[in-house]
Each structure stands twice: as C-alpha cells, then as structure tokens.
Design goal:
mainly alpha; globular
C-alpha cells in the first residue's frame, strides 16, 4: 500500500535516495539562511527592529542545512549536486516570487514594500515547510537516526510560520492589508505550481534510483497532480489567511545551536 510513511521509509532505507533527499534539503535550507542574512543586513532604517528576528530566522535555516549535512556524514555519504529541476528556492525566484538575489547581493537598502514582499513570501513557503515537517514528525519522531532532527526542525518551522503571521498582522494594522493579501495570493498560486513541478522531478529521480515500476510511478505522479488540482481550486486559501499565533514573539530569542540537540 502506498502511503507517505512507506514512501519515505523506502527513501530512507536506500543510501542513494537518502543522499539525494538530504542534499536537496540541505541546499534549500542553506539558501534560505543566506537570503535572510542579506535581508537583515539591508533592512530599511524605519524597520530596524525587525533585523534581529530576521537574523534569527536565517540562523535557524543555516542550522537546518548543517543538520542535514551531518545526517549524511553520520551515514558516511557525501552530498550530491542538487538537480536544477528540484531546486525549489531558485525556481521560485525565477517565477519572480520573493526578493531577487541580484537585489540581495547589492548594498542598497530595501524598501518597506520589499519587507512586505519578504514576509508575504515567507508566510507561504513556511506554511509548506511546517506542513512537511509535521508529516515527517508524525511518522518518524521516534526514528533512531532522524527522529531528533525532525522534531527540532519541525519546531523551528512552526516558529517561523508564527513569526510571519505576527509581523504581517502588525503591518496590516498599519494600513498595508490589501497589499499583503495581493502579494500573498500571487505567491501562493506560484508556489503551488513550483511545488508540483519540484515534487514530480524529485519523485522521478527517486523512482530511477529505487527502480519503481511504471504503474507505481504513474500512481505517484497522479497523486501529485491531484494535490495540485485541489490546491489550485481551494487549498491555496490556507496559505493566505492571517491569524494571531499562539506562539508570540517566536523569533525573539537567539537561535539554539544544533549541538545542543542530539539529532545525529
């Protein structure tokens, strides 16, 4: 029977598929760390109070990248080059979602509109990250190799999502509500397309590594398309709602170093 648990267990049990999975995850997290560090450095003077929380966000992402690389090292596996069709972060940038890397590499201060764009984009991508890590946590929280890492990263992603909600609500109260909603809707619709395309590419690579039959690969591809159809119709709306989170000021303290967790 095909299920998220059995599929991930199959990926986990094979060195090459596990290597690809961890490499993709490490690359995406490291990219997110760099982006947040640059955004923190370029925050406009009128929003400097945000900088420590953006720094904390980036530090968490960097930490996650190191953790995935440490999990590879523990198993004696070097990282693999990430196929471009599976690079979620870069594909989003190519769709014009978020802040362009060319802008972040410069030294010109960001505008308030840029900060709104950053937070709206993060609201969408952190929703996806939080849901994915909750899924892994449900099935693998007690796994001897990855359980502690999954729980720690899942908690961080929930913090990131809470932070986005709280900051965007504060901006909405200042009169930016319509702009926030418009940007979030654009981001959400683009993200679900990119997520579909990346999911299909990752599953195709995993299928080649694991020798999946054509019927099995077809069923998985159909499932990915079905998720996209649902998200395109109504599911995207969960990504654009704003609610005051239970976790208030979720990024108001320094990041916890990964060595304080026995994740590997």
């Amino acid at each position: 029977m095909l299920s998220a648990q059995t599929l991930f267990q199959e990926i986990l049990d094979n060195d090459e598929s596990y290597r690809l999975f961890c490499s993709i995850a490490a690359s995406g997290e490291a990219q997110g760390g760099w982006e947040n560090a640059r955004i923190a450095a370029l925050v406009p003077e009128g929003r400097r109070e945000l900088a420590p929380r953006i720094v904390r966000h980036g530090a968490d992402e960097d930490k996650h990248g190191r953790i995935f690389n440490a999990l590879l090292k523990k198993r004696g596996l070097p990282p693999v080059e990430v196929p471009p069709e599976t690079d979620y972060t870069m594909l989003l940038e190519q769709q014009g979602i978020g802040l362009a890397h060319s802008r972040l590499r410069g030294e010109e201060r960001l505008t308030e509109r840029d900060i709104i764009t950053y937070l709206a984009h993060s609201r969408i991508t952190e929703q996806r990250a939080s849901e994915q890590m909750q899924l892994l946590r449900r099935y693998f929280a007690d796994h001897p190799d990855i359980g502690r890492a999954v729980k720690m990263i899942s908690n961080d992603e929930d913090n990131h999502l809470a932070y986005c909600h709280e900051e965007l609500l504060a901006l909405a109260r200042e009169g930016h509500g319509r702009t926030i909603q418009r940007i979030m809707r654009e981001c959400a619709l683009a993200e679900i397309r990119v997520y579909r395309d990346v999911s299909l590419a990752v599953m195709a690579d995993m299928g080649r590594i694991l020798g999946w039959s054509r019927p099995k690969a077809a069923v998985l591809a159909a499932g990915i398309h079905a998720v996209y159809a649902y998200e395109r119709l109504v599911g995207w709306r969960r990504m654009v709602t704003l609610e005051m989170p239970e976790r208030r000021n979720a990024l108001g303290s320094p990041a916890v170093p990964e060595h304080e967790y026995e994740y590997a």
